[in-house]
Every structure is written in C-alpha cells, then in structure tokens.
Amino acid sequence: MAERQDGFCLREVLAAFRACLTAEQTVLMDPYLRGWNGLIRFLNSLGTIFSFVSKDAVTKIQIMEKYRSSDQRERYETLQTMVEYELASGLVSLKNRGECPESGCRTILRLHRALHWLQMFLEGLRTSQEDSKTSVICTDSYNASLANYHPWVIRKAATLAFCALPTRNAFLENMNLGTPEEAVDMLGEALPYVCKVYEITEELYAKHKMLDLP
Ligand code: 1PZ
C-alpha cells in the first residue's frame, strides 16, 4: 500500500495513549497531548468540514502545552499532579467558568469527554459490518456521549458534518494501518489502552467531584 504523503498513521496515536499509562496508574500529560495532536491531524485529513471541531480541540491542546512549557511545568506532568496542584492553589472554579476559563482541569475535562466519544466510535467501527455507515456509527456514539454537553447548534453542526464521513472501509484505510481487516485487528489491540486512560481520568475527576466543571 502506498505511504500517505503526510506520513500520518493512527498507530502512533494509539501508541501515545498507551504511553500515557504509568505503573502507578497515573496519566502522563505529554503523551496524552501527543495522542491528541495526532488525532487532530487525522481529523484534518477528513476535510475542512471538521475545521470547527479541530479548531476548538487545538485551542485546548495549546492551553495545556503552554502549561507544560511554563515555570509550573512539573505540576502538569500527570493529570493527577495537575488536579492536586490546581485544586490546592485555587485555580479551578467549580461554579463559574469566568473565574478560571483556562484551568487545566476544565480544559482536560473537555478532551476527556471527547475521548469517550472516540472510544465508542472506534469500537463501533471495529465491530461493525463492512457495509455499515460511518455516519450512523459516528452519530450514535456522539449522541451517547459528547452531545449531552453540547448546545443544540453544535449538535446540529456536528450531525450535519458526520454525513460527509467516508465509507467504513475508506475510513479504516485512511488510518494507514494496512487493509481494513488489519486496521480492525490493530484497533482491537490498542483500544483497551485508550479505555484505560479514559477510566483512570474518569475516576480521578469523580473522586474530586469535578465531572461537571463549568
Ligand atoms: C471522525 C469524525 C470526527 C467527528 C468529531 C466528533 C466530535 C464533534 C464535536 C463538536 C464540537 C465542536 C465545537 C466546540 C465545542 C465546544 O463548545 C466544546 C466545549 O468546550 P467549551 O466551550 O466548554 O470550552 N468542546 C468540546 O466538547 C471538545 C471537542 C473536541 C472534539 C475533538 C474530536 C477529535 C476527533 C478525532 C477524530 C479521529
């Protein structure tokens, strides 16, 4: 199979999420952001119709990268150290977004919710029939996750954009993991790591009652 010109391969994204996990069950920030940057490259390869999505995600990734290159970088080494630091320093607002619009905790929470969608979407894709519609898998996983946090206008725009998604096999080939069958195998192997990252983060946020940060 011909190499894609941009050298994109979903394998690196999945490897990054695997690399987030430490023996202490913490989540490392740098590979987490690397995984997200890879996802955005993939999203951009699907066409400009998803620009409004990637723009928002990029803004959030950049907020976190800024913390990682600031004087406080060590505080943001893992999601756990970030939560501890921001809570102890009064950098998180539990009620009003305006007070801490760029807190790491609220920013990561948005990406975390999107990771739930991604996990369900890729699992749906992996276990679907060859003639399944990507747009249906995508809409179903979106409605079951992220849509609950989005206002009507965003839900509408997202659902419209999903109609532009390529067919299941073209989508799998776009991941550059080999044939659709090989891509499905790879997803089966790698998705448990994405799920683990999601679970650990969910537990962390639940423990600190931060699942609804404004
Ligand atoms: C393969 C098809 C890709 C479809 C992507 C599915 C997600 C649709 C989400 C549309 C959201 C876009 C607009 C911005 C919404 C923001 O208001 C919210 C909340 O942030 P706040 O306003 O509170 O600061 N942002 C989000 O929910 C984060 C969304 C990130 C989505 C990243 C998707 C990555 C896709 C990877 C594709 C392989």
TrEMBL record:
Q: Which domain of life is it from?
A: Eukaryota
Compartment list: Cell membrane; Cytoplasm, Cytosol; Endosome membrane; Golgi apparatus, trans-Golgi network membrane
Q: How does it sit in the membrane?
A: Peripheral membrane protein
Q: Which GO terms describe its biological process?
A: negative regulation of interleukin-1 beta production
- What reaction does this enzyme carry out catalytically? N-(9Z-octadecenoyl)-sphing-4-enine-1-phosphate(in) = N-(9Z-octadecenoyl)-sphing-4-enine-1-phosphate(out); N-(hexadecanoyl)-sphing-4-enine-1-phosphate(in) = N-(hexadecanoyl)-sphing-4-enine-1-phosphate(out)
Q: Which GO terms describe its cellular component?
A: cytosol; endosome membrane; Golgi apparatus; nuclear outer membrane; plasma membrane
Q: Which residues form the Glycolipid transfer protein domain?
A: 28-176
Q: Which InterPro entries match?
A: GLTP_sf, Glycolipid_transfer_prot_dom
Q: Name one GO molecular function term.
A: ceramide 1-phosphate binding
Pfam families, from UniProt? Answer: GLTP (PF08718)
* Keyword terms of this UniProt record: Cell membrane, Cytoplasm, Endosome, Golgi apparatus, Lipid transport, Lipid-binding, Membrane, Nucleus, Transport
Query: Could you tell me which PANTHER family the record lists for this protein?
Result: CERAMIDE-1-PHOSPHATE TRANSFER PROTEIN, GLYCOLIPID TRANSFER PROTEIN-RELATED
- Family, per the entry? Belongs to the GLTP family.
Give the protein name, as stated in the record: Ceramide-1-phosphate transfer protein
The species is Alligator mississippiensis (American alligator)
Q: What is the lineage of its organism?
A: Eukaryota, Metazoa, Chordata, Craniata, Vertebrata
What is the primary gene name for this protein? CPTP
